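User: Can you predict the 3D structure for this chain?
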Amino acid sequence: MKSGFGILLGLLCLSVLIRPDAATAQAQLPVLHTNQAYVEEATRPCSLDVKDAKAVFAFVFDSLPDHVKVYPTESYFYYTFICNGVPYDGNIRLDASNRDQGKVVFAYSEDLEGWRGETPENHIILDAADGVQSEKLEPLVYRVTYQGKSVVFALNDLSGVKPPASALAPDEEFIGPAFDESAIRFFLVFDKKLKIFHFILDETIKVADQFEPSPRTDRILIGKRTGFAFYRDYLRDRKIMIGAYMPNMLTNTWFDGPFDQLGDDFIHGETLRDALIAQDPGLKGHIDRFGGFPGGEERVGVDPYLPYRSVSDLYIFDRCATERKAEPSYYLCFAVDYDRDRQPYLGAYGPKRSHRARR
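Assistant: Here is the predicted structure, written as structure tokens:
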């Protein structure tokens, strides 16, 4: 589930008007968003029964075009809307674990905001018994039909995406690509010796952000749009994700980082489960190949980056990396975990790792 005032505005866009002779330049122009459009949506009367999950699904589904692209690699198709002045966000998900059994997952809730905490989530799994038909047309392409309307969901095909050899350290194993709902693409890797995960920025494509260095060191780079923080590795030409802005993580926005967008369709065999169990042997026998627990509502969180409130929170990474760049434990400097009191620490400085689950 994702939320946020800025995200909602992102759906209220107006096309930029251009002259016919400028048609070839259209893709280069920005998309215009107006406060007028937002105000008019926020003040529009709404008759939708937001307590009726099937009614909300019917509204969302009927509002979709005939063909949509699902970019996030855990196959969430996100949406937002306002009803009677209240913002809602949610998703339609074609989960890799059950979509070939005709299942369609639908969820929504009132937006999370920092001042109000958790909001109740409506979550249902729909199939033919509910009048929802899901048909696989080809690998990663599905047609969903409900009440006479069909929508083709094209999932993001990253099957050919692999990191360049220079982007991997000697003990690292490539788990799979991850395309985050923030529009940033990553390589998820696992260090088999140190038993830690890293998200490496995929720079084989144009990165949809611009980075500025921290005031203290240009090894720490922060995305102007996403707030994602990266560290320029001393030993390789790559950027390791070290942080996401804490308010975005607390309110579950599109900028909470890639922990909830693992590349499920591109993880081969038992690669992820084996890595999770290597990191925490207590998980053996309790998780599936995606790291999910029985019931499918929770899975092990792979989030080795810091929820930061200020740029100064990130300087611990630079201190650790500068001190340990010649040591075998160097890459532990970029692995964040949590102690029993949910306090974050770096793998190089903290106690034995623990795992946490996320919804």
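The mean pLDDT is 88. The chain has six helices and 22 strands.
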